[in-house]
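A reminder from the course coordinator: this example appears on the midterm review sheet, so study it carefully.

Given structure:
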């Protein structure tokens, strides 16, 4: 089962996340203020610019109208910016507007005994940038090709380690491995008993260790309203 803790904004503290004691913190009743969220996260992490356009906060909605990321389909399991050489260490999602059927966000930790021996892995950029389940739609084929060139030749160790222990650096959306090896990892990693299903409420701020977890979105109807803010950070050196 995915380990997580729940806090209230008045008693917020990301120290357990920084120390790798826990990999997911749910903060309730956080304010609808990008400045306050920014100041809080910068107390623990270095804020990271996000794709596209190197923005600090990204809007995520069901329709995507006038926003950067969108979607109501079942998203693939992924690590944010896992296709880069330096993926972010922490991802925060804040629920600005929640109404009706908006689906849940699922989290699972990567702390499994990997059935595959350690090796160097790369990213399947061709598959990733052609996937209709990805939440950003490239504005042109030129932009798509530029994105592929920018993040080509990215390699990572399959087995990595932090202060808490070893974990597998793998996600369904990006990792390029032989089919049988992907299936062996996914059978363990995405076992339903290991998943935390977060049902959104307005004011929720969910902060996760990005490299040590996978997350995804459930499909929804378009009858509801969901507007999330996403902010990310690197570990402070």
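Designed residues:
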């Amino acid at each position: 089962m995915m380990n997580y803790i729940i806090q209230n904004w008045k008693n917020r503290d990301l120290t357990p996340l920084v120390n790798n004691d826990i990999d997911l913190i749910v903060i309730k009743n956080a304010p609808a203020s990008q400045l306050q969220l920014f100041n809080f996260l910068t107390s623990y992490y270095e804020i990271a610019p996000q794709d596209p356009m190197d923005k600090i906060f990204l809007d995520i909605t069901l329709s995507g109208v006038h926003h950067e990321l969108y979607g109501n389909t079942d998203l693939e399991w992924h690590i944010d910016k896992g296709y880069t050489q330096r993926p972010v260490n922490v991802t925060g999602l804040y629920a600005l507007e929640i109404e009706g059927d908006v689906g849940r966000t699922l989290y699972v930790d990567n702390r499994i005994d990997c059935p595959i021996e350690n090796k160097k892995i790369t990213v399947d950029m061709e598959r990733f940038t052609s996937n209709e389940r990805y939440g950003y739609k490239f504005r042109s084929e030129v932009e798509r090709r530029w994105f592929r060139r920018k993040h080509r030749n990215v390699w990572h160790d399959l087995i990595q380690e932090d202060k808490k222990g070893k974990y597998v650096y793998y996600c369904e959306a990006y990792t390029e491995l032989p089919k049988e090896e992907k299936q062996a990892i996914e059978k363990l990693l995405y076992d339903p008993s290991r998943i935390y299903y977060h049902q959104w409420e307005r004011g929720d701020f969910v902060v996760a260790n990005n490299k040590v977890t996978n997350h995804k979105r459930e499909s929804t109807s378009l009858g509801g309203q969901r507007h999330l803010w996403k902010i990310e950070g690197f570990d402070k050196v």
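DSSP finds five helices and 16 strands in the chain. Residues 179-189 form the longest helix (11 residues).
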